[in-house]
């Protein structure tokens, strides 16, 4: 009698027997549920549970080579969550994650901040120095924004005023979300100009 393999024999699996498609669907389903939870009376507990599940799914990708996940999301269509999930894969790098994350973004208000906040912490420098993070990002504002949104603590605005003044107000408005005047004072005019960016 010939041996018959299961129809899904040869499928790449990680974690608890999950396929990469399972993870992709799970992460995006979580994002939809997280949005719908805003209508629930126990929104905080629901969203906390959803975030925990997303974190488990993405952590599972540590067993997945970045090239495999990149091929999947390239075929599926690039989403911000798909790009951020890449950051958890073996061999992933910040610049590639950033390029994919911003691939379909034409305005800064299209950034899904929940997605950005799920970036692998291993890609974020321990230093809170904006200057250091800019150096890691090769002075590219896109990976810099991802690093800032991916960390919950305030950043230290130690860049020269000329650099800060040249920053687009909409990007400045994003950085202001990680600003604490007790940690790092900013020029009031810079804050005022960046605050206009939140309305762009």
Written overview of the protein:
- This protein has 200 residues and is an all-alpha fold.
- It folds into two domains: 1-123, no CATH class; 125-200, no CATH class.
- 52% of the residues lie in helices and 2% in strands.
- The protein is built from eleven helices and two strands, in the order E-E-H-H-H-H-H-H-H-H-H-H-H.
- Strands 1-2 form a two-stranded antiparallel sheet.
- Helix 3 packs antiparallel against helix 4 (80-86) and helix 7 crosses helix 8.
- The model has no long low-confidence stretch (mean pLDDT 89).
Evaluate the radius of gyration. Answer: 19 Å
Taking pLDDT < 50 over at least 5 consecutive residues as the criterion, the unreliable ranges are none
Cα shape: globular
Proportion of β residues? under 5%
Main pleated-sheet profile: 2 strands, antiparallel
Number of helices: 11
| Fraction of helical residues | 40-55%
| Structure class | mainly alpha
Distance N terminus to C terminus? 69 Å
Instruction: Give the domain tally.
Output: 2
H-E order = EEHHHHHHHHHHH
**Secondary structure: number of strands:** 2
What would the average pLDDT be, to the nearest integer? 89
